[in-house]
Design brief:
This protein has five helices and eleven strands, in the order αααββαββββββββαβ. It is an alpha+beta fold. The strands form two sheets. The chain has a nine-stranded antiparallel sheet. It is globular and about 60 Å long. The N and C termini lie far apart (145 Å). 31% of the residues are buried.
């Protein structure tokens, strides 16, 4: 028995040492961090689920609004495919020094314009000829600009409704263009290309004071809206069709134009 006691004592000491080491290791073991494989796997799974849910939520495209006829307007007729070609030239002398009243009947109501033959006889004589020949019956107003472009105009006059129609078969030059480039609201002026002699059938109406470049000669002012600005403002307020970035969201089309001397 005396021989076994030293052995038992040694075993007891070893047991105490081993227990102490085990407790120390447990107390000082590092805690899991974001880089720990288990924690990271859980985070990645959650992120994937969130991303998937987000993708599903945004995968349905937002519908694009379509042009719609405003209350008080009627659906516009289809544009012309083959506009008329004039066989006679405008009679400039018949318009020179005179004032006329034009009534543009649209699918949204009438617009009345005073034509300044005393200031722009070539332009007014052309307008009278095209009106008399029914050139614009019908003719969609194909372009609307606003704050984004920094000019506020409704452009009409191309029977094809594209802005790229063939024209009436003649052209003429600039007259009565403001040297300061200012076109007050209600101004009616000719649209043209960079060629100063490209005036023909297209014209624009400013629905807000607008300043245009004077380089190239400016644009021929030939009339002033006297009635119907509220109609134009209503069309402008509806905005531009986002698909083509040009045409009015609220379609407006010229149905007929009559011109008479101002009483």
């Amino acid at each position: 028995m005396r021989d076994k006691q030293p052995v038992l004592a040694v075993l007891a000491v070893l047991a105490v040492v081993i227990g102490f080491v085990w407790v120390a290791n447990v107390m000082t073991a590092p805690k899991p961090t974001a880089d720990d494989p288990v924690t990271a796997a859980t985070s990645t799974s959650d992120a994937s689920a969130s991303s998937s849910a987000s993708a599903t939520a945004t995968s349905t495209p937002t519908p694009t609004p379509s042009p719609s006829v405003l209350p008080g307007c009627t659906p516009p007729p289809a544009a012309q495919t083959t506009p008329k070609k004039m066989t006679t030239a405008p009679d400039i002398e018949a318009a020179r020094g005179k004032t006329f009243v034009a009534t543009i009947t649209t699918n949204c109501g009438p617009i009345t314009i005073e034509l300044h033959g005393d200031k722009a006889p070539a332009t007014v004589s052309s307008f009278i000829l095209l009106a008399k020949e029914g050139y614009w019956a019908p003719s969609p107003c194909h372009r609307l600009t606003g704050d984004e472009q920094g000019l506020w105009v409704l452009q009409c006059g191309d029977p094809t409704g594209t802005g790229a129609g063939p024209g009436p078969g003649y052209h003429f030059g600039i007259e009565n263009a403001p040297t300061d480039g200012k076109y007050p609201a209600g101004t009616v002026a000719m649209a043209r290309t960079s060629d100063p002699n490209s005036n023909a059938d297209q014209f624009f109406i400013t629905y807000k004071d607008t300043t245009l470049p004077t380089d190239g000669g400016g644009y021929s002012i030939f009339g002033t809206v006297t009635k119907g600005m509220d109609l134009i403002q209503k069309i402008a307020a509806a905005g531009v069709y986002s698909v083509d970035g040009m045409s009015p969201m609220a379609p407006i089309s010229i149905l007929s134009v009559t011109v008479a001397p101002k009483a």
